[in-house]
Amino acid sequence: MASASIDTLDFRGQPAISLATASGARAVVGLFGGQVLSWKPAGGEERLYLSDSAVFDGATAIRGGVPVCFPQFATEGALPRHGFARNRAWAVRTRRTGDDFAMLALGLDADDATRALWPHDFDLELTVLIEDSRLELELEVTNTGTDDFAFTAALHTYLRVREVEESRLEGLYGSEYRDSADGGKLKRDSGDALLIEDETDRIYHAVQRPLLLREYDRSLGINAEGFPDVVVWNPWETRCAALPDMAALDFRRMLCVEAAVVQNPVRLAPQAQWWGRQTLVAL
After folding, report:
1. 5-282 maps to CATH 2.70.98.10
2. What is the rounded average pLDDT of the residues 51-77?
3. What is the active site of this protein (predicted)?
4. Which one of 76, 131, 138, 258 is the catalytic residue?
5. pLDDT digits (tens, 9 = 90+) for 219-241
6. Over the chain, what HEC string results?
7. Is 156 annotated as catalytic?
């Protein structure tokens, strides 16, 4: 049996790191954006959506995988949409392998360019761990400055599905959500499962239970710690057709289920830390 490995590679013209376990699990993490671009559990198929039309120019946000949104989610503040972390080059900090895992940690620090947008000193660390059927992502934020700051954030996870209309997302029953596709109205989920049948753009608040994404022949367990909110997004036909970096019918092959902190921004005192984790388990 081959051993676990971590290697550098070129991915669509950009530097990336490949992770592999002895059991056959695989992942690719791009250094631009600190972004997981691919994940295949052992013996399984690709479970993350990455657009064939995504732009890999080292400046444009990449459509797919798991973009890191920081220090702002979407348009929740005055910064560019989803902040700047997904548009910055991250650095490798730690590589580690064992009998049944491969782990990579990437880091991003404040610099003059980030301070011009957001006048705070910070340290971000994203840890990516793969095991047999599990992908675990942990984002740690440290305030390295002398003043408090507040932020919103998300792991903007694009899941690959066979057919979004035949997928069911369970675990959100009873949760309150802001419906951004309906003018930001506050609503409460009342169904046993969320079915995607139209444009969906929801921020669920204070989600307490693990989620389960069911397809007709496979499932995916989704769990978050530290991230209290869950964002569910699918652009559907009209909005998808208007996206220049996504094929017109690709809304059928993806569903974003994002670990997020949006409703109540995190405030960090100098030298304080916060962390959030999202775990995906192929079933």
Report:
1. yes
2. 97
3. 156, 258
4. 258
5. 999 999 999 999 999 999 999 99
6. CCCCEEEEEEECCEEEEEEECCCCCEEEEECECCEEEEEECCCCCCCECECCCCCCCCCCCCCECECEEECCCCCCCCCCCCECHHHCECEEEEEEECCCCEEEEEEEECCHHHHHHCCCCEEEEEEEEECCCEEEEEEEEEECCCCCEEEEEEECCEEECCCHHHCEEECCCCCEEEEHHHCCEEEECCCCEEECCCCEEEEECCCCCCEEEECCCCEEEEEEECCCEEEEEECHHHHHHCCCCCCCCHHHHEEEEEEEEEEEEEEECCCCEEEEEEEEEEC
7. yes
Q: Confirm whether pTM is higher than 0.85.
A: yes
Within 13 A of 113's CA, how many CA atoms are on the CB side? Answer: 8
Tell me how far apart the alpha carbons of residues 48 and 27 are, in angstroms, rounded to a whole number. 10
The mean pLDDT value of the chain amounts to: 97
Task: Kindly name the residue from 125, 136, 156, 225 that is annotated as catalytic.
Answer: 156
Q: What is the domain partition of the chain in residue ranges? A: 5-282
Q: Hey, is 253 helix, strand or coil?
A: helix
Any catalytic annotation for residue 258? yes
The pLDDT confidence band at residue 1, using thresholds 50, 70 and 90, is: low
**Structure tokens that stand for 27 in this block:** 């992942």
* Contacts of 147 by beta carbon, 8 Å cutoff, 6+ apart: 120, 270
* 77-113 pLDDT per residue, tens: 899 999 999 999 999 999 999 989 999 999 999 999 9
**What are 136-158's pLDDT values in tens digits?**
999 999 999 999 999 999 999 99
